[in-house]
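Today's session is about reading a structure prediction critically. Students often jump straight to the picture, but the first step is always the sequence itself: look for stretches that repeat, for charged clusters, for runs of hydrophobic residues. Only then move on to the predicted structure, which in these notes is written as discrete structure tokens rather than atom positions. Here is the chain we will use throughout the hour.
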Amino acid sequence: MTLSKESALNVARVLTEALPYIQRFTGKTVVVKYGGNAMTGDDNEDAFARDIVLLKTVGINPVVVHGGGPQIGEMLQRLNLPSRFVAGMRVTDAETMDIVEMILGGKVNKAIVSRINQNGGRAIGLTGKDANLIEARRMQVEERQEDGRMALLDVGQVGEIVKVRTEVLELLVRGHFIPVIAPIGVGAQGESYNINADLVAGKVAEALQAEKLILATNIPGVLDKNKQIMTGLTTAAVEALIADGTIYGGMLPKITCALEAVKNGVVSAHIFDGRLPHATLLEIFTDAGMGTLIKKSSAPQA
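Below is the predicted structure for this chain, in token form.
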């Protein structure tokens, strides 16, 4: 098929716009969190896989961390097991943990690995238990009771990260592989922990001192009080938006994860709607971007 002159010029403009970003980020690490809510069908998942392969092909080192909450919920429903949430976290007893490991470490992880490989990449799937990649402990969750006292809640095998061991990731990156990480941690006695994928992505990005943390999810970005996307924010601006109540509720954990990553050495964090085809490429390689960018200072940063 022959492109029209207008279409050909448009392709050239896109490539020219992308060039300085490719040059700037070659050799840098980008941690991409691919949320379970962003996995919306074959076409979209193939587009995501091609984005990741393209990043690797132009010399950027992507590390993928994926979620899978909807997929876990669907399997629990099929097995007639309850889904309970406390303070936004799935209560994970031993039986539920078995399902979490099966879905995250098996079905979802291997599906993403397969798609990347089918699109020309060299992906390897991991959980946080492989080579003790993600060391974790049981999360202590407190909730204020009606009488004002704080009570400790039992959320089961929900973990918080103690340490990310980067040796295996660095080895894979040096070998030109694409690591794909399921957010399952390992305790001191070998026990498994279910960990929020945003938290895993943020801590992996910090440990690798990544150029970017990308949170591809099912929201367009950080919205102001008029529901408009705020595209460029400093860490100070984000803290002010949390303080005045603009950022609240379910957005807080995701924003806090991005905020902490940038404060701890990641150059920038990006939050956007991963359900849009090729959103990752558009966010990294175009001037306009796709969602919200968070950085430490007000200096220009792609």
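Discussion point for the tutorial: The mean pLDDT is 89.
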